[in-house]
Design a protein that fits this description.
Blueprint: H1 4-16, E1 19-20, H2 21-29, H3 33-42, H4 48-59, E2 63-64, H5 69-73, E3 82-85, H6 87-95, H7 106-109, H8 114-137, E4 141-144, H9 154-157, E5 165-168, E6 176-179, E7 183-188, E8 193-200, H10 207-222, H11 225-230, E9 236-241, H12 244-255, E10 265-269, H13 270-276, E11 283-285, E12 290-291
Parallel strand pairs: 8-9, 9-10
Antiparallel strand pairs: 1-3, 2-3, 4-7, 5-6, 7-8, 10-11, 11-12
Helix pairs in contact: 1-6, 10-12
């Protein structure tokens, strides 16, 4: 017999693709990473019930663990187990009315490389930070990625890649840049809904390649393609860097695109987000101004 919490765990894992046991626990306990570590110090047994549930879901083939993860991921400082959804788990979710492709070959989908795993888990960490901030603030709703599809224009929904956006570079005939966000979210308040394209940077992409990606966003935004493609008049491109040095290089890179910098772009690190919250003053604009995503600069402008 599966509990409502079991289904919630499975649905969360399916939505974010891969999650560590620590991330799953923190989500349902409503804790930041720092708060979770402090509680583990005081009561190392406090979260054993979650770990037992995860083990049971894995034992019943409702969750899966990516192959070789211990050997590959411990070297990167990630010692907790990672979980993905299995085909059996997907079928159970579909039977319970949760939207998921239960016919997908989830076994092959879960055979992924270590870099893909690390990037997926890092992106999930950012989404979870927004989830927690919205939950604590209470007045902001997070609409995450696939849940945005019903709000897209019909033409976009019919495309095989609805999250892709393509723009021609001004002054460069034939130069078309296509970008796909690592995650697309909307922050919805009583009066506004701000679309945010998340780019999780692990420092593995060259600055030159990263600059081209930002140029794609910039040209799309200047041409209004974000509204035509995704149906939102507002857009922010949120880049999360692995270090302050990388963050500074990223801000400098976007100034090559927008002279003086653009408020379309915001930059942060996981450390800044941990300190201020995802909705707090954790962000630097392309003009190096410290802002909250819900503040006066919530909409991009030059």
């Amino acid at each position: 017999m599966y509990t409502d919490r079991d289904l919630e765990i499975m649905a969360l894992v399916a939505r974010l693709r891969f999650l560590s046991s620590d991330q799953i626990i923190r989500f349902f306990a409503g804790l930041t990473a720092h708060e979770y570590i402090e509680q583990l110090k005081d009561k190392p047994w406090a979260f054993q019930v979650f770990l037992r549930r995860l083990h049971a879901l894995f034992s019943h083939d409702l969750l899966t663990r990516p192959e070789r993860q211990r050997a590959d991921l411990v070297a990167f400082g990630n010692a907790s187990l990672l979980y993905g959804i299995s085909r059996k788990g997907a079928r159970l979710l579909k039977d319970r009315g949760i939207s998921i492709d239960a016919d997908l070959d989830w076994a092959s989908q879960n055979r992924v490389t270590t870099p893909f795993l690390l990037h997926t888990v890092a992106t999930a960490e950012i989404v979870l930070a927004f989830e927690l901030s919205c939950r604590r603030l209470g007045s902001v709703e997070l609409i995450d990625h696939a849940a945005l599809l019903p709000f897209f224009p019909e033409e976009t929904r019919a495309r095989p890649r609805p999250f892709a956006i393509s723009a021609a570079v001004r002054g460069r005939p034939g130069d078309l840049i296509t970008v796909i966000p690592d995650r697309l979210i909307a922050l919805k308040t009583e009066h506004t809904a701000s679309l945010c394209a998340i780019e999780c940077d692990r420092g593995t992409m060259t600055i030159k390649r990263y600059t081209r990606k930002l140029r794609g966003y910039y040209e799309a935004w200047r041409s209004g393609l974000h509204e035509k493609t995704w149906g939102s008049p507002s857009l922010r491109v949120l880049s999360i860097a692995p270090s302050e040095r990388r963050l500074a290089n990223m801000i400098a890179a976007q100034r090559e695109i927008a002279s003086g910098g653009s408020n379309l772009f915001c930059f942060s690190t996981l450390e800044r987000i941990a300190e201020h919250g995802a909705l707090g003053n954790a962000w630097l604009t392309g003009k190096s101004e410290t802002v909250s995503l819900l503040g006066d600069h919530a909409h991009a402008h030059e």
